[in-house]
Amino acid sequence: MRSKIVPIGNSRGIRIPKVLLEHAHLRDSVDIDVEDGALVVRCADKPRAGWDAAFARMAAAGDDALLDAGRLPHTKFDESEWEWK
């Protein structure tokens, strides 16, 4: 499908037909890259996507220890039961 590049303020843009947006599952936010001289538009990942898998790999490799363990002084707060809200 051919489209024209149109002026948008000081920038330029491309009108993307609705059918292409739906087919590519593109919504409000996209990632745009240049690969081999072509613009590639992808659906933007959700924030922190893939963190679970990354943490699991770190744990399996034994690379999930606290960096400051043993360096900071303990307080009564550290010894009591608490959780993030």
Largest sheet: 2 strands, antiparallel
Integer tally of domains: 1
Under the CATH scheme, which class?
Answer: Mainly Beta
Strand portion: 15-25%
What is the gyration radius calculated from CA atoms?
Answer: 23 Å
How far is the first residue's CA from the last residue's CA? 50 Å
What helical percentage do the residues reach?
A: 10-25%
Q: Note the run of SSEs as H and E.
A: EEHEEHH
Give me the count of strands.
4
The order of strands across the largest sheet is 1-2
Number of helices: 3
Mean pLDDT across the residues is 86
CATH topology: Pemi-like Protein 1, Chain: D
- The CATH architecture can be named as Ribbon
Specify the structural class. Answer: alpha+beta
What are its keywords?
85 residues, alpha+beta, two-stranded antiparallel sheet
Description:
By secondary structure, the protein is of the alpha+beta class. It has one domain (1-64): Ribbon (Pemi-like Protein 1, Chain: D). The chain is 25% helix and 24% strand. It contains 3 helices and 4 strands, in the order ββαββαα. It has helices spanning 18-24, 51-60, 76-79, and strands at 5-8, 11-14, 30-35, 38-43. The strands form 2 sheets. Strands 1-2 form a two-stranded antiparallel sheet. It has a two-stranded antiparallel ribbon with strand order 3-4. Strand 3 (30-35) and strand 4 form a beta hairpin. The protein starts with a strand and ends in a 6-residue tail after the last helix.
